[in-house]
Each structure stands twice: as C-alpha cells, then as structure tokens.
Amino acid sequence: MTLSAEIALRRGEFTLDVGFEVPGGGVLALLGPNGSGKSSVLGCLAGLLRPNRARITLDGRDLAGLPPHARGIGLLSQDALLFPHLSALDNVAFAPRSTGAGRAEAKRRAREWLTEVDALELAGRRPAQLSGGQAQRVAIARALAAEPGLLLLDEPFAALDVDAAPAIRGLLRRVLRSGPPTVLVTHDPLDALALADHVAVLDGGRIVERGETRKVLSAPRTAFTARIAGLNLVPGTAVEGGLRTSGGQLAGIPAEDVVEGEAAVAVFPPSAVAVYLKDGEHRGSPRNTVEGIVDALEPHGPVIRVRSRGDDWAAGLAADLTPAAVAELALEPGTPVNLSVKAASVAVHAVSDH
User: Fold this and answer.
1) How many CA atoms lie within 13 A of 22 on its CB side?
2) Which parts of the sequence belong to the Mop domain (predicted)?
3) DSSP track, 235-261
C-alpha cells in the first residue's frame, strides 16, 4: 500500500506546494521550523484542511475528496486525547467499533493491540490513572486498532518526559516496521532518526531537501538542514559502550532501546567537541579523539562554529568555540587539528533500519 500526495494550499500570504510518496511500512518524517508547512501537510492528508489543489491517493484510492472519517486514517498527536470516561480497553476498542466491527471483535482487537504495546495490564484503568507514557501507549494502540491505511504522527513525543520518550520511540519503531504508510511531523531530528527511513525538510511551504534520513541529517547538503539538525550525528553500528564507525569506535552512553549489532547513531552537540592543534597538547578522551582539518569557520551567535573535514567521524564535524579560543589557536581553513569529545557527552540511539 503506497501513499502518493501532491498538495497545493494557499492561506493568506503562505503558500504550500509539496509532493511525495510513502510505501507501506515506510515512514516519512517532515522536518522544518514553525510555519514551514508541516502541520498544513498533515491537515490536508487528514482532511482537516481543504487545499486549493490536491492529489492524494492510497493504493490508487482517491482520498482528496473524502471527509476525514471516510479516509481510513489513524492520527496520533502529542496529546493522547483519550476519552476520560472510558477504560483503556474501551478507548482502544472505540477505534474498530467506529469502523464497523462488532463489540466482541472490537474488544478482541483492543486486547491484541494493548498486548502489542505492552499495556494490557492497563486495560481497566481510566486515563486519569495513567502516566503520560502509559496514556501514549494506549493512544498508539487505539490509532492502530482501527487498521488504518495511513498513519499520521503529529509530534507524538513532545508532551512526554525525557524518561518516557525513548521507550515510546522504540515501541513505535517496532510496530511501524510492518505497519501502513506513515507520515511523521516533528521538530526533533532524533525522532526522525529513530523512526523514519526518509525525511523531507520544509521551509516556506517547499521541500528544500529530501532523502534517506541518516544521509540527510548526518551530512546535510544545505545550511538550512544543518541548522535544523543542530547536532553532530555519527552513523554506525551499536556495540557495547558505544558505536562502531567506518574507521573505529566512538565511546558513548547507549539509550535503553539500543541493541548491539543493529544500526545506531551517536549524537552530541557542537559545544561538547574540543579542538586542539594537531601537534599541541590535549586532554580529551583518547577513545574519542580523531584527526581532522578545519574546513570552515562560521559565526554562530556568541560562538564560532568550526566545521572539519577528514576521515571517519571527523567528516562534517562541528565544534563551537569562543572567538578568543579560535584566535588563540590561530584556526583557519586548512589548519590540521585534533577533535575530542568526552564519552559522557555522546548519546547513542537506535535508528530506523527500514
């Protein structure tokens, strides 16, 4: 089952004009700043906005002229939006009931999906008795229990605390592998890395960059996409205590959902990277030190962002230094340097292996 969409929408001075395809089991992440058009795309797909022109098909079935309830779409947002007067089981059963399933069949499917999201023990609880992470698990089960032909995810982790989000990411990554075409709207590149096989970056209602998620975010081709990512992202394979890269190993702290031997990415901010002259003394972690060459110096607010080129994870690496440090080291494009980051600053996350 494949989603194919071409959408044109004009609202005041804002114009949206995008096109994309998402195959069954595929996840497309839409990234971009506020006002770039991400939510408008989702609204048009869901039937909540009426575009000026649209061709939206799901396996050849035209959705563009259908009302929201007839589109066969599941929607998961940052708020679980569970019915407060219903138990978790009845909340999930509501989805298949709304598509015509009988009461017994709806409850059977609800129990299956609660089991799938590791929440069957919550079946009898009402939403007020659930934590944020528990409520989102129930919401995921409800969105999928209707067996939608298309799944829309609208900032599904934004309301979760930092401890609950990784588990929900891991859960969604698992269930989406065999799920319907999915469009994920997010402002967080980590969400895209964890869930999506492809990403489209929006700016001003247009797609300015698209491609495989890891390629786009680990090696941005435009300054805009680099700003969206805002992180150093090193792809590789999860190993004990870090990440195996193309040229060695990067020590870091694995998230709970990381599985050794599977695709993963090391994530750390430019502020965590120390820069030393290649022949100078440095005190960085020897496990996480790599040789590079200064490629560019970019003003970045109160700091100077140093971008490097080189082999392995030095390629495209960003480090934020004070202007005084740049002057003291006499850095300029072409200067050989050592780049170092402490293992405690490196987070290793599982990524989509679609």
Assistant:
1) 30
2) 283-350
3) EEEEETTEEE-SSSEEE-EE-TT--TT
Burial tier of 70 (Cβ tally within 10 Å: 0-12, 13-18, 19+): exposed
**What CA–CA distance (Å, rounded) separates 352 from 196?**
6
What stretches of the chain show up as alpha helix (H) in DSSP? 38-46, 88-98, 103-116, 132-145, 165-176, 189-195, 213-218, 223-229, 323-329
Q: What is the pTM of this model?
A: 0.72
Contact, 145 vs 65, CB < 8 A?
no
Q: Domain 3-229 belongs to what architecture?
A: 3-Layer(aba) Sandwich (3.40)
**What's the CATH number for 270-341?**
2.40.50.100
Buried residues in 37-68 as b, exposed as e (16+ CB within 10 A): bbbbbbbbbbbebebeebebebeeeebbeeee
Q: With H, G, I as helix, E, B as strand and everything else as coil, classify residue 175.
A: helix
Which three-class secondary structure state does DSSP give residue 343? helix
Helix, coil or strand: residue 116: helix
Per-residue pLDDT of the chain (354 residues; tens, 9 = 90+): 899 999 999 999 999 999 999 998 899 999 988 889 999 999 999 999 999 999 999 988 999 889 998 999 998 888 889 999 999 999 999 999 988 889 999 999 999 999 988 899 999 999 999 998 899 999 999 999 988 999 999 988 887 777 778 888 888 888 888 889 999 998 888 888 889 999 999 989 999 889 998 888 766 666 567 667 777 888 889 999 999 988 888 999 998 778 899 988 888 889 999 999 987 665 544 679 999 999 999 988 899 999 999 988 888 899 999 999 999 999 999 999 999 999 999 988 877 654
Closest listed residue to residue 71, CA positions, set 54, 85, 88: 54
